[in-house]
Amino acid sequence: MDSQADHPKLEIFFFPYILGGHLIPMIDLARLFASHGVKASIVTTPHNVLLFRNAILRDQELGHDIGFVTLNFPAEEFGLPNGCENELATTNGDMFIKLFLATMKLQDPLRKLLSETKPDCLVSDRLYPWTANVTDGLGIPRIVFDGSGCFSHCVEESLRLYAPHEKVVSETESFVVPGLPNKIELKRSMLPDYVKSENGFTHFLNEALEGEIKSDGVVVNSFYELEQAYADYFQKEMKRKTWHIGPVSLYNKSNIDKVERGIKTSIDEYSCLNWLDSREPNSVLYISFGSMPRITSAQLLEIAHGLEASDHHFIWVIGRILNYSSKEKQQVEMGLLPVGFEERISNSKRGLIIRGWAPQLLILEHPAVGAYMNHCGWNSIIEGVTAGLPMITWPFSSEQFYNERFIVNIIKVGISMGNEHWVPLKELPRVTIKSDKVASVVNRLMGREEAEVVEMRKTAAEFRDKAMQAFQEGGSSYNNVDAFIEELKSRRKVQNGHL
Ligand code: UDP
């Protein structure tokens, strides 16, 4: 491969993490940068290349300078099946840990690659803190990305600095998160275990934080107008150099791009659109809990009964279910949904069940979709905001309870399902929400005459317009991509002695 000196064009390497919610937006990010005229190289492993190959080929046909640089993945060394190179391909928590460990082995190949190619910049996922050591030694700028917005990082910082959760007496007592631009209330039960007491993951995240502080800046999948106060807080109080460049999902303009965004969808574009086309505007609730398994079969049943008891149409994406023992797996297969449920909702055209992977962007933007129930993963939130949809928030894990506060209390485009119990990723959560609660929250948000819902729809539509403006030529995110590129160009000129 050629070195930087041979390339008049700026070259940026993008190094995505193995979680769906990190991998998918990083690919959009690389494609976005290539569309702004730089050479974008996605550094990943062979099976992840396969997921995105078609999309990248389409970009190449448009003349964009984008491609993959492949690193071998040590699956066998860690006892992983061939092809298991991201979380989406795992079937249990043990595989997830092996995957996590296997990524550490990419360190040496990445160092070799970067020292041979010397790109102008590495955009590294935040969860590869070790990339800081690699780029430091080589004098390559390292920019951090993790697919999330600024808000959750501001909450994390406040909890770290002031530990307000240590001053309450119970898991259910509310406390205010100090020092933030708005009054944010949380409960101990909503906090990650690694925040409440130190464990291995606390140390890993501390390393990620140090890696971010040491980095040359942070690229954020959000737009300035959405989280202005927190973008400013992140820059001024937390001293991070930041570029808000999202929503990156807006890069996907054609239906094929919206459908082929990584995983193969379990429903084809036409069946999905036909079903939606036959529905009234704003009449359908879209339900998805993201890319990872989040609910148990028992919780699944409560949702099914709740949806059936509600008065509304829905598309429900049923992904992987959290059950690890073979005994439980059998139960899932036998009793997944209430007897006759699928037949009833299909005959009455009340609902569409998608088992597996949904073409989410295509669904969210359809006029028939009127609201979105999600787990408060940041990509889901920003995609919901971009579609101008009010939301039902149902967080489970990670930083999702912080994101819920953003939707419900800050931008006020959602109502909470009421779950208050954080669970570690890949652990079986209790049934926290019963069917009657599901039905009443769905009826509350989908009942279109309610004043609070009318107001939420109006606010959501305003944020959708702002998202579109930010992303298009002349908008804040568009300008930030160009500003980022200009900064790297100036750096190169200085290095080459032209200034
Ligand atoms: N997604 C999708 N189809 C699905 C499930 C998820 O396209 O059936 C995409 C979704 O559009 C989003 C990502 O997967 O871009 C999930 O990211 P998020 O941060 O919301 O959640 P995570 O799964 O990382 O918790």
From TrEMBL:
Keywords: Glycosyltransferase, Transferase
Xref: SUPFAM superfamilies: UDP-Glycosyltransferase/glycogen phosphorylase
GO molecular function annotations of the record: UDP-glucosyltransferase activity
Pfam families noted in UniProt: UDPGT (PF00201)
InterPro entries: UDP_glucos_trans
Domain of life: Eukaryota
Keyword Isomerase listed: no
Family per similarity comment: Belongs to the UDP-glycosyltransferase family.
Name of the protein in question: Putative UDP-glucuronosyl/UDP-glucosyltransferase
Organism: Rosa chinensis (China rose)
